[in-house]
Every structure is written in C-alpha cells, then in structure tokens.
Amino acid sequence: MSRLRIYDKGIPDAVVGTWTDPAAISRELGAVNVRFEQWAATQPVKPGASQDEVIAAYRSDIDRLMQEKGYQAVDVISLSPDHPDRAAMRSKFLNEHTHSEDEVRFFVAGAGQFTLHIDGRVYEILCESGDLIGVPDRTRHWFDMSESPYFIAIRLFTNTDGWVAEFTGEDIAERFPRMIPHTSATS
Known about the structure:
Helix content is 19%, strand content 36%. The protein is of the alpha+beta class. It has one domain: Jelly Rolls (Sandwich), CATH 2.60.120.10. The strands form 2 sheets. Strands 1, 2, 3, 4, 6, 7, 8, 9 and 10 form a 9-stranded antiparallel β-sheet that branches. The longest helix has 11 residues. The protein starts with a strand and ends in a 20-residue tail after the last strand. The relative contact order is 0.23.
C-alpha cells in the first residue's frame, strides 16, 4: 500500500501525519509541488516484458507528461533482490541530493521509498505498483530501494544523459528510517 509519512526534520522519531489514501497523498504532496499520480496499464504487462512493451502499456500517460513538462527521454529500469550490484546501487541513492531536472518515476511493479527534505519537514513516500512520483528539480531528497530491492520503474528525463545527482553533503538521510524490504514481489 502506498504511504506518505511527514516528519519534523529535527525529530525523526515523531511522525506529524500518515496517509495511505492516494487522493490524500496527492493532495499533501501537491501542497509542496510534488506530483503523485496513479496510472493503470492500457494493455497487460507480462512478466519479462521488454522495455518497449512496458512503455507501450503506459504510452498515453507518458506522452501526456512529456508534452506537459517537456521531458525528452523515457526508459525502464528493473532491479531484483539477486542483482549482484544491489548494495552499491542502493548506497548511491541513500545520501541527500538534488538534480537540475525533475526526478520522475512510475512504479510498474515492486516498490521504492523517496524521502524529501522540504521547508523543515521530511516527506517519506513509499511508492508501489501503479504510483508515479515527480520530484521537482532542486528538491533535496534521497531514495531507498531496501536491502532486498524489487522494482520495475519507468523513468522520464529532460536531460537525455539521464540521472545526474548533486550531493548536498548533509547527513540528514542517516537519521530517518530506511525502507523495509518489499514483501510482495508479485505486485
């Protein structure tokens, strides 16, 4: 189940609020200019589907966002618990960073946890299958895929070179909860 938790940045143990209803998550995140949507495939996505097949299943939503926001590239990333570089890949994203463009991810399957540091608050968003998150450029954030990652995600980019991070050097990410391994590899 998708979930949003909001913390005061100075008190990592104190949750200010928790939401699991997608409309409420969208409303709360929209108040800080973060996009949260849920998409449905227009055609079935079979296990082992190619990148082109995955993109085709969500083409109308992808095209809508590309036209609206000027994104230039789209791809699909997939990670499983047996990936040999999973620990290194996880650690790459766990430190607070920003980007010069929006970070847009749609979870076709599995889950990932985005944590955003905005205006003295920390927004922890557990995204699962069917969830899209759009983190605006220059927003401080980090991403956790857990020690046992499982997800398939569509990524949209303005920069055709893809993901480029600018690390803040702050240790705030170390003070907040990490993602618990996703338990439903079938979602």
